[in-house]
Design goal:
- The protein is built from six helices and three strands.
- The chain has 201 residues and is mostly helical.
- It has a three-stranded antiparallel β-sheet with strand order 1-2-3.
- The longest helix is centred in the first third of the chain and has 28 residues.
Amino acid sequence: MPGAGDGAAGSYPAAWSLDAPLEIARWRPFVHWLLIIPQAVVAYFLSLLASALTFIAFFIILFTKVYPESLFNVMVMCERYQYRVMSYAMFLREPYPPFTFETVTADPGDDPSRLSVVYPRELNRWAPLYKWFIAIPHYIVLAFLWFAAGIVLLISAFVILFTGKWNEGMRKFVIGVNRWTWRVTAYVYLLRDEYPPFSLD
């Protein structure tokens, strides 16, 4: 079906995609924010765990050039969980995100929201010292993109109310902003050394 899914394009080793139809129940944009509360609580604590793991990884990479695979897998799980919750809160999909905690780098494919990252065998030991700084241009662009995405989400809620489906271009834009954000997150959270592209694809 055209527009049923939006896979991650490009070759960056950290990818997020959504496999869901454009059609969605008209009432969902107005209640998902309430239904997602239990998941949002879990996602919040996982975000704290992700911050702690990044702090630990900073020193390990600095001295060993390696992100321990066990910690890396937990980190990816935290991010995957948060993106599943985010995609539901943004009414991009209908299925409620599962309370599952798979510590794998490749997405298991059991949810419409799919996040993966390739595990690096070796990292630049000095990169953790400057990644946050050279990512500043991305922060600036993403601030404007998320402002625009907020407006698109508001308009889309009413579009869905009257039509029962997402406008394909609007949803593609919101998905693109999420995808861009994930690549920058993977870079700043020390999961990858490759500088993320300035792209919604």
